[in-house]
Write a structure and sequence with these properties.
The complex is a heterodimer of chains A (132) and B (112).
Chain A lengths: L13 H20 L5 H26 L14 H30 L24
Helix pairs in contact in A: 1-2, 2-3
Chain B lengths: L2 H8 L1 H26 L2 H26 L2 H7 L1 H36 L1
Helix pairs in contact in B: 1-2, 2-3, 3-5
Chain lengths: 132, 112
Amino acid sequence: MIPNIPLASIDAARPVFMIVMGVFLMVVVWRMAKEMEGWTARLMVGGAFLLCIGYAILMPMYEAGKIERYVPGAPLHDAQTAVAWHAVKLVVMNAGWLVFGLGLGLHSGLVRMPASLKFPKTQTVSPNESVA
Amino acid sequence: MNLLLEVIILNGFLLDTLGVIGLGLLAMAAARLVRDKKSWGGSMMACGAVALLAARVYVLLAPHFVDRDFADAVGPYAFELLRIMPITLLTFGLAGIVWGLWGHEKWMKERY
């Protein structure tokens, strides 16, 4: 489909690059998350996990031709599988960036937690109360 | 086709919008990290996020205006560059975000 031009010879290195980047992103976020708490850590780790799946597994699989690329209107060898993987890719990559962006927004103070998600620390027994 | 699958595939624009919003949030959050906390990783992350955002917006919009006339108008060399640009921006954007995040994490460790 695309004529092979010498400038685009990064094509061969790109899957490896994406695998390395995906795994490294996950590792860095995991290390950062140890010093965070609550929804910041959850959202960042969740987003990085989705992106790691997308970049380290899905995209190289597409590049290697293991998963059929879905192009609207083009004939497909196995339509159901191609469409299902396409849906997985769309959800993983886009939701990954959204969740990761929200996590980083919380971390940097750009977004604040809605009050309804902030649970007060539950204290079942108050210190002065007799429980007898 | 399953209804949910149909919504996801045929209205892919919805999901792409989510991705664009996420990248925008990422860029703004990174810019805020630079401004409030003076973290050098933040600027790298912001550059990466903007590169990814530009590439993504171009990829989303390209089918609507790139046709034969457009290719003739910009000429063969510019068209080649335009064709390579999204992949390059996606690659360097991802690298920028990951590198910036690593820098920010290192900076956090050094500070505390």
